[in-house]
Amino acid sequence: MSRKRSRRFRRSARPYTPTITPTHHIRLTRIRVEVDPDRDWYVVRVPRRRERDVESGLQEAGFQAHRPVQQSFVRRGNRVVEVEARPLAGYVFAGAEKATDGRSALWAWYDAVMAKPAPVTLPDGKGGQVEVQERGWRDRPFHEVMGPFDAGQLQQFVEAIGPRVVGALFERRHLVLTFPARAAKILEDEVVLLTPPQDAPMGGALAAVG
User: Residue 69 and which of 29, 90, 134, 154 are 20 to 30 A apart at CA?
Assistant: First the structure.
């Protein structure tokens, strides 16, 4: 009997050291870019340095658009800066629904962009004038449309370039959501630990990063 009691006593007297386990953390992660096989894909030749504008414009028009870049993040002073290498500068991939004529749809979007009103000159309030152009291009959005191409060919090219970098909010090991990597303001090997209140929304957790 005494033996059992002594064992019980030794077990309860073992020192306990609490450890801090954060509920959420944020880090940069690379995700695979998926080329949708259910779409017809075209390669659009655009003016250099305008790939980002054309990509966002095509996405707003209902296309799937991908700008082939290699992303990395470096620290310059107190800022984290996104650096992009463009192995295929001057080109954007555009995916259109198979039920539509993708080539005609792309040129229809081109005509809509070119038909937007020319820039207007307005007074700047300081005795001068400023030229304003709401949403348009001073030059043509693209020069040529090639394709359609097989989605598998473009998938191989995209994977050869490298996955896309995004900011990711994790709950322990589970991915909760992703957001633009620039908003995280951290490098790929850094982790930001978050301990939001239990009733705080995920948006509040992200606000803590900024």
Answer: 134
